Amino acid sequence: MKAIIHGDQGLRLGEMPEPAAKSGEVVVAIKTAGLNRRDLYIPERRGHKGHDLVLGSDGAGVIESIGEGVTKWSVGDEVLVNPSLNWFEKSDGSPDGFGPLGMPDDGTFAEKIVLSEEQLEKRPGYLTWEESATIALAGLTGYRALVTRGNVKKGDTVFVPGAGSGVVTFIIQFAEAIGARVIVTSRSAEKREHALKLGADRAIDTNADWNEELKDETIDLVIESVGKATFNRSLECLKKGGRLVVFGATTEDVIDLDLRELFNKQQEIIGSMMGSRDELREMLAFAEKHNIRPVIDQTIPLDDAIKGFNMLEDSTQFGKIVFTI
To answer: What positions does the domain Enoyl reductase (ER) occupy (predicted)?
Structure first.
């Protein structure tokens, strides 16, 4: 089967053996798959050593075959992949055995994938195939950061540096549906405009003086994923007693922190990463109730997937990149 593979020959379109379902497993014929930033970083971290690995965490498709003992699914069911492996119940932290799909296990950038029946959810009927392939990882990550860990409430003001990522496009929509005020940043005037159309209340230039721009705002919650480039600036904007949730670092992830400033302001710094199946199901129900849809920048055939990786590396996209298979 065709797949986007990383191995000794680097990142490439290649061939992999078709998977077969063992007991408790199903084979899904993938129709669409969503590109995430972790797919960009895995080749960098692996280098050019190791076995061939199929990348990809997000996907949607049709069940092609089922293994012995499978009771939840039938051949022909339309499903989306839960990329949060072995984390089923909501908890403060992820359990032992948790890991995102796509390393070390083969992922979704292939014509077929084999998974435990526990790692699938019914495809939301109100979404297109392309939208279905992009809601799980980014939507779950944003929902846990904003709702579970951030404890956002109606009337809160949420500040989110960076406006173009798939996760942030969900955070904007989730916060708006809850009744929170949302402020985002971007160096790109075009991305700021997109964010405002999506539901952000304000969109400011990343290069601006945030303290000056936000002097009349009370920031209750910051959602950070940029890293060193913005982290301390975000803390400066956060109110006394406010919460900063960090779910990633697209720039350098080692920072210098003024602890005296932190405890004087009695601020909270909270880590967050993906989420449980409980939260995925909560998020999917919430999204359907409020008609929240993934924002898709580009749809690309799997044969041209490397083009999508290059776009993501350059951060030219607003929203998600989808591969059709």
So the answer is: 7-323
pLDDT single digits (tens) 34-74? 999 899 888 877 766 668 999 999 999 999 999 999 999 99
Q: Which of 61, 12, 9 is nearest to 33 (CA)?
A: 61
Residue 49: what pLDDT? 63
Strands (E), 82-149: 84-85, 99-100, 112-116, 120-122
Task: Cis check for the bond before 301: say yes or no (omega within 30 of 0).
Answer: no
Pairing of strands 181-186, 202-205: parallel
Kindly give the residue spans of alpha helices, DSSP state H, lying in the chain. Answer: 37-46, 129-132, 136-143, 166-178, 189-198, 210-213, 231-237, 259-265, 277-289, 305-314
Q: Tell me the two tokens of residue 153.
A: 């409430």
Identity of the residue numbered 286: F
